[in-house]
Sequence to fold (207 residues):
Amino acid sequence: MVRLEPGPGIVLWRERLDRAAQTALVAAVRALVAEAPFYRPQMPKSGAPFSVEETNFGPLGWLSEPGGYRYGATHPVTGKPWPAMPPALLALWQAVADYPHEPECCLVNLYRGEARMGLHQDRDEEALEAPVVSLSLGDNARFRIGGTTRKGPTQSFLLQSGDVLRFGGPARLAFHGIDKVVAGSSTLIPGGGRINLTLRRVTRPAA
Ligand code: MD6
Ligand code: FE
Fold:
């Protein structure tokens, strides 16, 4: 495992999970997706469909709807509460987040075909003092990150299966996105593609 610091507040652990751990996590995700299926979110206002499919685990799920972004406790299609986060993800958060409270949302992004994610900030959380931790599984992806304004310089690096990225502090509100996914670069996920699991604290813990 190699720990890199591509910029202030950004930490990247290369292959933080070995292949066996990745395989186990994919199996856990697939089992939970049977309860909380992937669905295609819609952009605020326009209602245009995302190219990625999403679901969530944990007490709160992140939702994008024509009315805007929000956190909610239930799946928009099934109406059921989101399944609990796999213990391996809670353990990962505890190992890398450097934050004393549990995450509340695990957003699951599935990239197949030409799916990508435009530059955005993660800023729908009250607990901005908590970092965001993300894990990549499956195909390689070109990740782009800049500063806290939409304009200005950016850098990009490849995220590979098993890589863990944390951003917090000065990078907590950095703009970031996925330029492209390299189809066929990994055999981890049955049916191919890339899964990204993003862990976040949403509410500010009671003092
Ligand atoms: C992705 N990731 O890797 C999209 N957000 O597919 C994110 O949007 C992200 O990787 C906040 C923190 C880390 C991330
Ligand atoms: Fe994000």
In short: The chain has one domain: 2-200.
